[in-house]
Amino acid sequence: MPNVMPAVLAALSLATLWSPAAAQDYRAEAAKRLTLLEGTVELAGLDSTVEVRRDRWGVPHIYAKTSNDLFFAQGYVAASDRLWQMEMWRRQGEGLLSEVLGPEFVERDRFARLLKYRGDMTAEWTSYAPDTRAIVRAFVAGVNAYVGQVKRRPPIEFTMLGFEPALWGDEVPLQRMAALSMTGNALGEIARAARVTALGADRVRRYYPIDPDRPLDPVADLDLTGIGFPSLGAAAQSYGAVPYKRLEGSNNWVVAGRHTASGKPLLANDPHRTIAVPSLRYLTHLVGPGWNVIGAGEPGVPGVAGGHNERIAFGFTIVGMDQQDVYVERLGPCPASAGRARCYWHNDRWEPVRTVMDTIPVKGERPRIVTLEFTHHGPLVSIDSARGRGFAIRFVGSEPGTAGYLAQISINRATDWASFLQAAYRWKLPTENLVYADVDGNIGWIAAGLNPIRSWTGLLPVPGDGRFEWEGFLPFSKLPQLMNPPSGVIATANHNILPEGYREQLNYEWATPYRYDRVMRVLSGRGGWTVKDFERLQHDEYSIPAEELTPILVAALRRRNVAHPTVDTLAGWDYVMRRDAVAPTVFAAWLRQVGPLVYDRLVEDRPGGRGRRDWDLPTVISTLTRTPEQLGASPIASRDSIAVSAFRAAVAELADTLGAAPSGWRWGRLHTTPFRHPLATMFDLEAPARGGDENTVNMTGGAGWMQTAGGSYRGIFDTSDWDKSVATSVPGQSGQPGSQYYGNLLPLWAEGRYFPLAFSREAVERETAHVLLLKPR
């Protein structure tokens, strides 16, 4: 579910409009509109009575006698907790934000309509599990049943924005926007094109390395001048409020029984996405004919993305396969015989640009009539009239079966490795490292996704003249996969997962390796692992970059006789980014300064230029620790100069921000996680102090000093006894302000604590706080 909420907040800025009296009125009114948690509700569309047991953490355990009832109830219950979030998700996917938010969102809506799947619907539905259409229809019917109940008095956000929730169509869970932010290859191509224009391909290859390394391949007769983020039009906006740097990441690992205390595998999943109110994730337990699965997914999609059933556990992290390409189309007037206004040059002839006229409703204005244009490669997202060219994005989302996460319906019912692989072969978007464990003691992994086959790297924009076309897709059997490795350990953290000697081209852009390296260092150090051990590892805050760089900084400060109280603090630091410690604060502030200074030397950029905002951490570490000769004729002196200059800038910044006394520079004072309601401060939650950063296993990265991304949901699954499995989520299951489950999980999450993920009927009954019966009308 893309996070539209920061953009909503930026566009509305409603938080300043509420007087204390009005705020109190809205709080009282919100409380009156809370969903019914217990009792009986009669609903048309059910075959028989469904039992919904909400446990004391807010997780619904749904028991149904038919598949139709199970997914009808899932849709109904998800909507009862998250209707406003789901409505905004639907509107983002369908290009209907302007209708309720105003003209600022017209271009974003236009892009959503460009991205809409327009292929064969029979192929689309048959790409998923055979019963997906029936499941989606039941799920949507459940959503609509709740909409019908509350349409006149919906959750308070609808009233604040002045509109009512709309009924869903069966196509809503098929939208492609849901996975767009996890396939940002087009952004990478544009950024790299700008670098190549400024620095040349050889220097870009050296200072902004790809993995596996290979020469960049700019097309000789393609002018990259003038290509930048505006070339992607609203596509860039659609990644969120800060679209140009993705800070999201994930961890998962699974260990064989010989390494655990129970003798059975343990699987830990820690998918990282935007931290927000309401939470991106929603936990559900689905029990019905052929179904007994529990875990977390996104509230607008049926099924569960990461969790377990009676036989297997499964988790996911992003692989990052290159699923997008930017094509630079040569545009011109069509030959008179074509009768079209615009054509593009393809395969030595002019082809007409396909156009679709569409209407976008706009709040406070007349509807906008827009023209959607498409070439052979995909939607035209912008036009450069001065150079006679346009930019098209080819995206696997135009292929059947690429609705984000919908393939989880097959994964949820796998019972062994063979059926898990068959289910994983249906998984096309987003690309995921799917890890696996089963009750028989097996563990496994597959990098699942639809991967285009290219004859070029896919790292830079290419001409759309027909020389650079996809040559089909990699057969699923050739995707990297592993079962029961001799080590008994599998881990992924968005790092380069390509096996040694693997020849297929999947990706060249990965997350930094530090989270993976730390996980493997810890897992390889001992055995006898328990659920509690994995809880601690998921919250591990040891920084490998700090381990590598801090000694260099301390040595430089002492050689230059820099007298500052934090020098000894850094010298004695154990490199753990604790929230109550001073050393992490100084290191983080220094790293923000030293990276740009190193790149100023490497790329010979002027101060304040590109190097100061666009630098690669592994290259900085490698330069400072292994190749300081790149910094000047006197390597150590040059390195010391940079390190000390960055330190002085860092401590000056900290003094301005936190006060003159370094004893008060605790990391958690700067590094917090804001839980801001998108519409009003009256519904905000506390902003807890955080440890870690974007390079620790407890990934807490974000813009500025804040954590804005990370593990909003975590699960640890014990195949020896499913009732020993645990989870954590934030801030709560409900998205309705005033609900007892709106922020109840935040204190647990802030302290790294978990709650039991009850699975057996007996365990669920012990944890039950509310029972709701859904009966057929």
Commentary on this structure:
The protein has 777 residues and is α+β, with helices and mostly antiparallel strands. 31% of the residues lie in helices and 19% in strands. It contains 23 helices and 27 strands. Strand 18 (432-438) and strand 19 (443-448) form a beta hairpin. Helix 3 (67-94) crosses helix 7, helix 18 packs across helix 19 (617-625) and helix 18 crosses helix 20 (635-658). The longest helix has 28 residues, at 67-94. It is globular.
In short:
By secondary structure, the chain is an alpha+beta fold. It is 31% helix and 19% strand.
Q: Give the spatial strand order of the biggest sheet.
A: 1-27-2-3-7-8-9-10-18-19-21
Instruction: Give me the count of strands.
Output: 27
Give helix % range. 25-40%
Bin the strand percentage: 15-25%
Return the structural class: alpha+beta
Structural shape: globular
Q: Roughly what is the average pLDDT, rounded to an integer?
A: 94
Main β-sheet description: 11 strands, mixed
Radius of gyration: 26 Å
Instruction: Give the N-to-C terminal Cα separation.
Output: 32 Å
Poorly predicted ranges: 5-16, 240-248, 606-611
**Helix count?**
23
